[in-house]
Sequence to fold (303 residues):
Amino acid sequence: MDDHKLKVFCIVAETKSFSRASEIIRLTQPAVSLQIQALEEMYGTKLFNRSGCVITLTKAGEMLYKYAKEINGLYASAEKEIGGVTGLVKGVISVGASSTIGNYVIPAVVSDFKRRYPKVGIHIHIGNTKAVVDFLNAGSVDIGLVEGDVNKQKLLIEKLIPDEMVLVLSPYHHLAKKSSISIMELSKEPLIFREEGSGTRQAIEKYLSKHGMSQQNLKISLVMGSTESIKGAVEEGLGTSILSRWATKKEAKYGSLKQAVFKEEKFVRDFSMVYRKAKEPSHTVEQFMGFLRRYPFNKLLNS
Fold:
């Protein structure tokens, strides 16, 4: 039996969407449809009811889904037990990472992990926190690395490291010489925010609300879909923003951006590792998770 087809089938069943499944597993929609069609030909029956945009499992589909989940679990258990006996760490790990962690933290961590375990392939899927949770719930990644709050219903969450959020300004901004700035001062400045669903934006809104400041009190001049675009806009003097110290480490070092902290109190959120309650990690995934728990992140930030 082709376990790849079963994996595709499970993702379509869980997302109830061929297009969403194609985004998650990085296949074209026709390729996803062909995988399902091959399974339907194998069993000689339809596995999904298709009515317009609504997709549901047929009776046969429900039966196959039950066994497919068990089969995928058995593959993972076999790999884990054999890896424990041989001590060999190999295979592929799929990691969903929200943008700050994925772009500014994980590359160095993965590089160090690969030096120790060269036979492991790591696929990193970067999206905002909401997208990473969707990847996890659909079973398309083994673990997620996120900033911001997530729904704990089907997930286990472990805090990895604290992440300080700082104000970032152009070196030519009239507040650039200040090392600390109050929220009231900030409310008078044009601000650049991330999009809805971003862990960074979620953390900012929570912090500002704690100090009595809502979006209505702010001058949000731009909403942008990536941290890199925000940094570019701040450098061009289009406004100020609030970003992770990790994301602005290089620019602060070379002087193209200035960092400042809040006068009210230190703004700290957490980077967290997230994984599904019901899914037992493979031997290789367990090794990577342990590596993350022990990793000297502070040394990396201060380098």
